[in-house]
Amino acid sequence: PFCKKRSRTLPSDLPLCLFPGGSHPKVGGDRRKRTVFTPAQIELLKKSFEENQYPGYQTREALARCIGIEEDRVHIWFQNRRARTPKRIRIGNHAAAPYRSYPKVGGDRRKRTVFTPVQIELLKKEFEENQYPGYETREALARCIGVEEDRVHVRIEMVGAPKTSLNRTYWNHLKRSE
DNA sequence: GGGTAATCTAATCAACG
DNA sequence: CGTTGATTAGATTACCC
């Protein structure tokens, strides 16, 4: 029982920005199956969270190995945890300057993935056909080009640009520099 | 240095118990 | 039906070529 058919095209009229969270009825593919953490895993995650609310990649990776789960699941868990932690208790964030402090706190980040032209080509082709590939699609695509699924996910998110045909990040970048 | 992956927040959807 | 994992938009920072 999951929700159906991804739309092949963007809904023409209504801007997607009106529907954060992918709430537009026509978008959103099959989701990754919800992860169920064991009490022991939760305990370790919470303990780790108390020590550092912004663990870097190495830390997340180690933690993930320790509790036998993927690094990206840990990453998501921390994001959700922070989002649901009252701001006054949140360490390493300042409401006024949302992004200013995170690099210091976060520390190391994952090594930048470099896609080959062939990989880009395939990603682009898939994206044209479906801008919101579900989990199964992403997984298959990832296997096909030989990278991890979450890298595909990030990549798709980056490129996804309802507003323009340009890369979303690039668009923001240009907007900032004038 | 420019282009873009990694990361963040915020809001929302939706599976599980 | 509340808790919480997953998805998305938008924004910022770091890094490879």
UniProtKB/TrEMBL annotation:
<protein>
    <recommendedName>
        <fullName>Homeobox domain-containing protein</fullName>
    </recommendedName>
</protein>
<feature type="DNA-binding region" description="Homeobox">
    <location>
        <begin position="30"/>
        <end position="89"/>
    </location>
</feature>
<keyword id="KW-0539">Nucleus</keyword>
<feature type="domain" description="Homeobox">
    <location>
        <begin position="106"/>
        <end position="154"/>
    </location>
</feature>
<keyword id="KW-0371">Homeobox</keyword>
<dbReference type="InterPro" id="IPR051306">
    <property type="entry name" value="Homeobox_regulator"/>
</dbReference>
<feature type="DNA-binding region" description="Homeobox">
    <location>
        <begin position="108"/>
        <end position="155"/>
    </location>
</feature>
<dbReference type="GO" id="GO:0005634">
    <property type="term" value="C:nucleus"/>
</dbReference>
<dbReference type="GO" id="GO:0000981">
    <property type="term" value="F:DNA-binding transcription factor activity, RNA polymerase II-specific"/>
</dbReference>
<dbReference type="GO" id="GO:0000977">
    <property type="term" value="F:RNA polymerase II transcription regulatory region sequence-specific DNA binding"/>
</dbReference>
<feature type="domain" description="Homeobox">
    <location>
        <begin position="28"/>
        <end position="88"/>
    </location>
</feature>
<dbReference type="InterPro" id="IPR001356">
    <property type="entry name" value="HD"/>
</dbReference>
<dbReference type="InterPro" id="IPR009057">
    <property type="entry name" value="Homeodomain-like_sf"/>
</dbReference>
<dbReference type="Pfam" id="PF00046">
    <property type="entry name" value="Homeodomain"/>
</dbReference>
<keyword id="KW-0238">DNA-binding</keyword>
